[in-house]
Design goal:
By secondary structure, the chain is of the alpha/beta class. It is globular and about 55 Å long. The strands form four sheets. It has a six-stranded parallel sheet with strand order 2-1-3-4-5-10, sandwiched between helices. Strands 6-9 form a two-stranded parallel ribbon. The protein has eleven helices and twelve strands. The longest helix has 22 residues. α1 links the parallel β1 and β2. Bound molecules: NADP nicotinamide-adenine-dinucleotide phosphate (NAP).
């Protein structure tokens, strides 16, 4: 295979988020990487965002920035709209003008979660939250712009940094004797590390052959393999964490399964968050590991970090 030795310029936005932090590592070997967080460019300043792209002239834009507080979005619709739609719309138009690739992330929240099986890319969307609606508007803006793009829909993200279910459960299991966790929502916990690694592999593949890559433009589902409820995930995390001798953790028997209806939050969550990843695996010749593989790694890393 003839791999082109080209000087590639990559622009990473949202570099301080869960996926963004991992992308700083995984994108680095692909070319010259400019990693920007909110302090470099605030998405509320669309002119500033436009200037950044126009001055740097990237070959690939990876947008890991998003308004991700799903509950707060219910009362901050304008803000969510600005970040998840208007800024994305601008990035897509700039990517089109530069003939650059735009790699963007979306979410299972664009579905209503009523399907029995895992959602495929072409399944009907029906977001039930402000967050989901604005993310879908972002997807549509990218498609409409006709820029070269990959929209990677993922779900149930966690990393060893930041606010996520895995970190929260370990913290709460130390603070509280009993925990109530929802058992009627299912998904595949997916590590930000996996999302970043797969993103880099996809970019590497599309840049190897730019002709072939035109056929690759589109939406893909990217999650770990397998399924679990939040309740079973919580128990799993505590059982694994106990193996590191953490005596402050409550026992897994103290986790109480509750229904979504008993745990009221501002934003509606999909009952079924499972995404079918066959298209991604087939197109990019990838293997996606079971969710336990990265969960084990993350728990181990959290405890080794504390030593
Ligand atoms: N988390 C999930 O479970 C989940 C599930 C499915 C899909 N996704 C999608 O996956 C992608 C990555 O998610 P993630 O979990 O890595 O998100 P995250 O940790 O919340 O990171 C989002 C990043 O966006 C940045 N950001 C927010 N508002 C901004 C603004 N006005 N200007 C510039 N930057 C701004 C944040 O900056 P600060 O650090 O300064 O706040 C943060 O670093 C997103 O597109 C998200 O919608 C996430």
């Amino acid at each position: 295979m003839d791999i082109k030795a080209v000087h590639m310029k990559l622009l990473l936005l949202g570099a301080n988020g869960q996926v963004g932090r991992e992308l700083q590592r995984s994108l680095a070997p692909l070319g010259e990487l400019k990693a920007c967080d909110r302090s470099t460019v605030d998405f509320f300043d669309l002119a500033g965002l436009q200037n950044l792209v126009r001055n740097y002239r990237p070959d690939v834009i990876v947008n890991a920035a998003a308004y991700t507080d799903v509950d707060k979005a219910e009362s901050e619709e304008a803000k969510a709209y600005k970040i998840n739609f208007e800024a994305v719309d601008l990035l897509a138009k700039e990517a089109k003008a530069l003939n650059a690739w735009l790699i963007h992330y979306s979410t299972d929240y664009i579905f209503d979660g009523t399907k029995k099986d895992a959602y495929k890319e072409k399944d009907e969307t029906n977001p039930k939250s402000v967050y989901g609606k604005t993310k879908l508007q972002g997807e549509r803006a990218i498609i409409q712009s006709k820029c070269k793009h990959l929209i990677l829909r993922t779900s149930w993200l966690y990393s060893i940094y930041g606010n996520n279910f895995l970190n929260t459960i370990i913290r709460l299991a130390k603070e509280k004797k009993k925990l109530r966790v929802v058992s009627d929502q299912i998904g595949a916990p997916t590590s930000a590390e996996l999302v970043a690694d797969v993103t880099s592999l996809c970019i590497f593949r599309i840049l190897q052959d730019d002709l072939l890559s035109e056929d690759i433009i589109g939406i893909y589902h990217l999650t770990s393999t397998g399924k679990v409820s939040w309740y079973d995930f919580a128990k799993y995390v505590i059982i694994e964490a106990q193996k590191f001798g953490d005596i402050f953790l409550t026992n897994p028997e103290n986790i109480i399964a509750v229904n979504t209806s008993e745990y009221v939050l501002p934003a509606k969550r999909p009952a079924n968050s499972l995404l079918n990843t066959q298209k991604l695996c087939k197109t990019f010749n990838l293997y996606l590991p079971s969710w336990q593989i990265h969960a084990d790694r993350a728990i181990k890393e959290l405890y080794l970090r504390e030593v």
